[in-house]
Amino acid sequence: MVNTFRENSNSEDFFSVADLxxxxxxxxxxxxxxxxxxxxxxxxxxxxxxxxxxxxxxxPLVHNMGIFIxxxxxxxxxxxxxxxxxPLSVMKMMDSNGDGEISRxxxxxxxxxxxxxxxxxxxSVLSP
Length: 128
What we know:
Order of helices and strands: HHEHEHHEHEH
Number of strands: 4
CATH class: Mainly Alpha
Strand order of the largest sheet: 1-4
Distance between the termini: 20 Å
GO molecular function: calcium ion binding
Keywords: Calcium
Strand content: 5-15%
Number of domains: 1
CATH topology: Recoverin, domain 1
Helix content: 55-70%
InterPro entries: EF-hand-dom_pair, EF_Hand_1_Ca_BS, EF_hand_dom
Shape: globular
Protein name: EF-hand domain-containing protein
């Protein structure tokens, strides 16, 4: 799965789209803005259907479901929705130098953790 993430141009596309101010790094407010955009109904949670619709054209369905399950576990609730604590968890996971920003390099390197976590959860979807 490591090569899949690196070869997946959508990971780079996400970085560019999420970098709202175009400064080449992601800050917490940009991750929160991305969360809010995916929270289509504005209830403060991302449901499976909201998550799938956000990535439908760029990630295979089974892996998309795996990433959702992984994110649901990241929020600590495993209640079928992703809550607003996940952008902070992602920031902590990806900001390896602790400077409060995620560089493109950190995103590429540490995004593998999320991608691999999703891949592991995808296997559980395929063979429960």
